[in-house]
Amino acid sequence: MRLTFHPKIGAKLIALIATLLLVSTTALVWSSNHLFVEDNTALIQQMNSDAAANIAAQVREIFANTNDKARMLGNILMRENGGSRGELLQGAFATDPDLLGILVHEATPAGPKLTADALSPSMKQAGLSSAAGILQTLEQAAGLDFKQTLQGNTQVTTANFADGLVALVVSMPFVKNETTGAFTHSVTALVRQERFAKAFSENELVSSFLVDRSARYLAHPNRQLVENAETAGHLEIVSQMLKGKFNNGQTAYTDPKTDEARLGAFRLVGFGGVGVVAEVPEAKAFEAAHRAQFRALLVALVVLSIAFFVGYWYSDTITWPLRQLVAASRRISQGDFQVRLKPRTKDEVGELSVAFNEMAGGLEERERVKATFNKFHNKEIAEKLLSGDVRLGGERREAVIFFSDIRGFTSLSETMQPEEVVEMLNEYMTIMVSVIRKHSGIVDKYVGDAIMALWGVPLDNPNACYDAVAACLEMRVALNELNEKRIQRGQPPLKIGMGLNCGQVIAGNIGSEEKMEYTVIGDSVNLASRIESMTKEFGTDLLIAKSVRDKVTERFVVEQCDSAHVKGKSSAIETFKVVGRFVDGKPTLIITPYSDYPAERSEKVVHGKAA
């Protein structure tokens, strides 16, 4: 007889004492590293904030100089004439090689109109001597809207021209009508992007970049991001900056494209909605801390190898099963009931794994039953049945009962293969049932090509009559759309009859102890079926009873039909056609080529005498 030893948790706790030295050493290393990281984080964030503030100040000064120069040259373009204007512009471009061009727009009834422009020799050497071509680049590629500028909104963006020439575009309101307060002119300056890029060169630790109010890169150490007009909207710090709650801030975030964790700070420049972001990758920021931590752990590993061996045995028998249990529990919470654990021990943790597997199996079975149940019952009925809210034996309720039938279905199906009949019914039922459910109705049952639906049960619905009639009208339109597809496919169109009645019913579980079905019974149900059959007699696709008409007459356009006797009823039945609805008090007809058709006799209508 072989003896086996399966230690319990109590025995394992004794082994834990041997690992206390390891835990204390590890905790000391971790806590010291954690404190170092916290202190270093604060220092790095302060460094990021200072860097963002300094760069923002530089950029703000560049924008201020650009603004002043653009307005000065704009005045020259609008006021000076002759040789003096050319000399002044030539001198401006000579003293500022980064200035590429000036455009002046005037507000006209037809929209912004270019009234004056001046291009630098650099632009002309690059083959960009046409202001029209430059405007096309600014409006299409750069997305510049001169209407926005004339409305007082300064815009900053970038534009890519020929031969790798990249310009930062600054469009500003220029001349204002003092009487109306509206801007009559705008001025746009094109400046070499390199003037701004100099402030954003990446150093050993901090990198920075400039974005506009649409998160588009205006300057970045990686020039390709600017040339490709990429955006930084995926970065949390940029989103936070563009929300505009504060002009500066800092946060830790992860780049979703690279999964790289970073520490960053931002500062709004205060011009055109642009902002500066300075950031440091956490891996680079805490490189020294991680290196020190690694060395400390190596020392602890050498000194405490025996303790680590005991800890490994302990963690493998306790923490691993618990981690698996947590992971499996999360999968259960996400709806994965097929997860199972493999017990590795026979202690309490192993017993817990076995119990978890039994629980998962029970949940899987319950979910399978629920999913199957929902396929054969409406969601509302299924939920009430599962919760026990539906009383056995039924209850008296007022409901709207709907019946529909496909006209000539028997003769039509005789000309089709069984598979084609099923395909036709599935397509037809899918469309009609979706309309019924859209208008708060539930489908009670299908009988061949017939549909029985209910409003007002099992859930109360004060607008049951309105919802039911609205659903019928939408089904009329949906059938017309379906028939158009069928005709295109070379298939015959379908015609249907629909009947609605409102009255008292007994709603509940009907059947035997072995099999029950939630449905409604009563004279009102029979009358709804008769009304549906009367649609043949009157050559229409929809008839409603007087009980329904009385509740919806102010919202739908109805026409009274002749009374008729039906089997099982001694008195003639009043029915009404629904031809449309009232929209803003005006009648709107809803009629299709299939809402009316030649009348024919119905076997459920009595001719010549009362039933």
Characterization of this structure:
This protein has 20 helices and 21 strands. It is of the alpha+beta class and 611 residues long. The protein has three domains: 44-285, no CATH class; 319-374; 391-606, 2-Layer Sandwich (Alpha-Beta Plaits), CATH 3.30.70.1230. Strands 11, 12, 13, 14, 15, 16, 17, 19 and 20 form a nine-stranded mixed beta sheet that branches. The chain has a five-stranded antiparallel beta sheet with strand order 2-1-5-4-3, sandwiched between helices. Strand 12 (442-447) and strand 13 (450-455) form a beta hairpin. Helix 2 runs antiparallel to helix 11. The longest helix is centred in the first third of the chain and has 60 residues, at 20-79. The chain starts with 8 loop residues before the first helix and ends in a 5-residue tail after the last strand. The mean pLDDT is 81.
Secondary structure: elements and pairs:
Layout lengths: L8 H10 L1 H60 L2 H14 L3 E10 L2 E9 L1 H5 L5 H11 L4 H5 L4 E6 L5 E11 L6 E10 H5 L9 E5 L5 E3 L3 H5 L8 H7 L5 E8 L4 E9 L6 E7 H4 L1 H17 L1 H13 L1 H15 L14 H29 L2 H9 L7 E12 L2 H6 L3 H21 L3 E6 L2 E6 L8 H25 L7 E16 L4 E6 L1 H16 L3 E4 H7 L3 E5 L4 E2 L8 E9 L2 E4 L15 E2 L5
Parallel strand pairs: 14-16
Antiparallel strand pairs: 1-2, 1-5, 3-4, 4-5, 6-7, 6-10, 8-9, 9-10, 11-13, 11-14, 12-13, 14-15, 16-19, 17-19, 18-21, 19-20
